[in-house]
Amino acid sequence: MRPDPGAIGRAPTARVALRSVADPAHPLIASHEAEVRARVLKAASALVDRLTYDAVTIDAVARASGVSKSTLYRHWPSRQLLVLEAFTYKTNLLTTVEDTGDMGRDLHSYLVSLTYCLKVGGAASTVANLLAEAIRSEEFAVQFRQTLLRERRHGFLVILRRGQLRGQVRDDVDLVMVIDAVYGALHHRLIATGQDVDGPFLRALARFAVEGTATAPYRESYRSRN
């Protein structure tokens, strides 16, 4: 609710004071809400590690977190959105964007981190079903793009842009297309072909990206080390 301009400068009434304390933007309330969300996401992400997508229910998360179902639904209107945010939370904790000064090395390290997140526990089932949900529902697809997809694509973008600043990646490269090709390759194997996303594949994928984006001096240096 917007403040009444005429109320500025007047002494606050008891009614206004009570309303401010109940306001979710109040620091104490906001802190409590953040603690509840963190507890739920931690519990839900642990369930994602152990269970399949369908088994991570609102009931299961409520039991694991000690948070009531009504509170869960207040923050996450659907089970799908809760699982999506929990999986994003988990992968954010487990993926780091290295800065070693070498684009190829950083890219490979990021791919290894992402692959671990995709393969541990019930992650493969979770990712496949979240993608299916995004195909079925445009509303969910928007959330998928704004959370999990945005976070992961940003990691790739940071690595490639740093490479450009160092003179390792050509300025004419379409970075978005590179991200689609590299990140999409992981999901293609995980969901479409069922082929293993193993060490040799990740090294070859990083090499593929470097060969297609590198400046001539960096390409020669990279080849001599790999």
UniProtKB/TrEMBL annotation:
Keywords: DNA-binding, Transcription, Transcription regulation
Bilayer-spanning residue ranges: none
Pfam families: TetR_C_11, TetR_N
Gene3D superfamilies: Homeodomain-like, Tetracycline Repressor, domain 2
SUPFAM superfamilies hit by this protein: Homeodomain-like, Tetracyclin repressor-like, C-terminal domain
Highest taxon in the source lineage: Bacteria
Molecular function terms from GO: DNA-binding transcription factor activity; transcription cis-regulatory region binding
DNA-binding region: 57-76
Protein name as catalogued: TetR/AcrR family transcriptional regulator
